[in-house]
Amino acid sequence: MKKALITFFCIALALCFLTSTSYAKREKFGSDPRHDVAKRVKFKASDDKVRWKMVMPWSKGLLFYDIAAHFCDTVRLATGGQFDIKPFSAGELVPAMQSFDAVSKGSAQAGHDWPGYWKGKNEAFVAFASVPFGLDAEGYNIWLYEKGGADMMNELYGKFNLVALPGGQCGQEMGLFSNKRATKMQDFKGMRVRTPGWYMDIMNNLGASVSPLPGGEVYLALERGVIDAAEFSSPAINYPMGFDEITKFAIQPGVHQPGIQCGLFFNKDAYDKLPEHYQWILDIAAKETQLWSYNWINALNAEAIRRFKEKVEIVKMDKETIIAFRKTTKAYIDDLKTKHPFVKKVMDSQEAFLESFADWRDARSGVTPWPYETFIGGRTTE
After folding, report:
1. pTM of the full predicted structure?
2. CA R_g for the chain
3. Which CATH number fits domain 176-258+312-359: 3.40.190.170, 3.50.50.60, 3.90.226.10, 3.30.70.270?
4. Does residue 69 sit in helix, strand or coil?
5. d(Cα 166, Cα 145) in Å, to the nearest integer?
6. Cα 140 from Cα 48, distance rounded (Å)
7. Intervals of the chain under pLDDT 50
8. End-to-end Cα, the chain, rounded Å
């Protein structure tokens, strides 16, 4: 009995010690700053009825339209229909490329975009859309939400009387659908190409002849031989456009857009009038859309690329060409940074993130989840 009591006492003492001390040798590593806000909510849930209009550069035939509509659906569901944002495709209320100005001026309260379309307003918009050899989907998500990227995005849109949120990440784009095989740098000289953003300037600097044709004009331009090659988006978005019917090659990888980042933007006056409850719902719905869009598009991409391979040859640029493209891109962006202060601010931030993430990227490499036979055959990384 005495031994049993001693044993019980020792166990109880050990449990007290374990529960009163921490296993950690250091302070907690990281915290969620929103927790303190959510712990002391100072507003009441609103049941106000709000009716907004959303404009965009997308037609209903593009999956980008579905991403915008998904955001609107999430807001509607989260408010039980009290906050209703009605999406209008390109041309229904305003022409595609006038959607930014329409929301800025208050003709519509909300918009959806690929920020690079507004390059003419400020070069830095491209950095929030996709940078050649820049951030991939994972990188954009970390940089936007954890490294101040979303704040800089909102600062830039704020110059135009807008409030902005990340609103759809689609991952890496396909490369060029082409009737000319191109694997080396010299192969691109003289090639007539469709692409927008900074990649357009980079390709022109390499001796190509580039124009940013609207998506709806690309098929006809390829079919008639007006251009030799074109990129538009990811496999799932390209497949309905039928580029594989009129080209022979798909030149990979899509170095021009490692991560397609879309945005949501709201007229600031309309946003400021919203109950705080609804402002939080916009924020949460935007994050939900960011998550959903990546998973949805990439699940579709896997099927789309299989279908493309039935009609076109997937051609990979050689390693030396990709490295040469990377060098040319850095020189171009470094020059932009000398001319545009906000480009410098944003790109310095993105480049600092890439540096800070490099050790973890290297340490975790070597276990790409290929199918079993592929992996044991020796291909362990992408």
Report:
1. 0.90
2. 25
3. 3.40.190.170
4. helix
5. 9
6. 34
7. 5, 17-20
8. 65
